[in-house]
């Protein structure tokens, strides 16, 4: 069985595919600045990618990550109030790496070096519209389910 991810920016949807058939669809939130490759643009990169690394296996739901490391904190209303405006990375991280040299790999357009992830976000944040800083945000239970459903190296296509 060959699994892959298909992420649609226009419909704000991530589809888990197996042998080309849709197994499950999840709502997501991509970049409020739209699609784009350039470092510093806060855009979601398009094209062919792969899951470069899976981070957070076994961490409790709502675990807070900074610099791809768990802080030991669990997201909740008190923590949110102490850090307003923070771009929360929660529960799991699926770190993306681009596969297209000059488009989303190497130099100023490298998805991996831009630290673009699929990750959990506060469940109260809406996921039906683009609001991220470039990453693909998911509900926490959804990202944990997805994390357990795929392997590192899994192909990912991001398109409008």
Question: What's the topology here?
Answer:
Layout: E1 3-8, E2 13-18, E3 21-27, E4 47-55, E5 63-66, E6 69-74, H1 77-82, E7 90-98, E8 117-120, E9 136-138, H2 140-149, E10 155-159
Parallel strand pairs: 1-10, 8-9
Antiparallel strand pairs: 1-2, 2-3, 4-7, 4-10, 5-6, 7-8
Summarize this structure briefly.
The chain has 160 residues and is mainly beta.
Explained architecture:
This protein is mainly β and 160 residues long. It has a single domain (3-159), classed as L,D-transpeptidase catalytic domain-like (Beta Barrel), CATH 2.40.440. It is 10% helix and 37% strand. The chain contains two helices and ten strands; from the N terminus they run ββββββαβββαβ. The protein has an eight-stranded mixed sheet with strand order 3-2-1-10-4-7-8-9, covered by helices on one side. Strands 5-6 form a two-stranded antiparallel ribbon. β5 and β6 (69-74) form a beta hairpin. The longest helix has 10 residues, at 140-149. The two termini are 26 Å apart.
Number of domains: 1
The N- and C-terminal alpha carbons lie at a distance of 26 Å
User: Might you state the CATH topology name?
Assistant: L,D-transpeptidase catalytic domain-like
Number of helices: 2
Order of helices and strands: EEEEEEHEEEHE
**Structural class given helices, strands, pairing?**
mainly beta
- CATH architectural grouping: Beta Barrel
Q: Using only CA atoms, what is the Rg? A: 15 Å
Strand content: 35-45%
Name of the CATH superfamily: L,D-transpeptidase catalytic domain-like
Query: Which stretches of 5+ consecutive residues score pLDDT under 50?
Result: none
| Widest sheet: strand ordering | 3-2-1-10-4-7-8-9
Under CATH at level 1, the class stands as Mainly Beta
General shape: globular
Share of helical residues = 10-25%
InterPro entries: LD-transpeptidase (IPR050979), LD_TPept_cat_dom (IPR005490), Transpep_catalytic_dom (IPR038063)
Family: Belongs to the YkuD family.
Organism: Methylomonas subterranea
Pfam family, one: YkuD
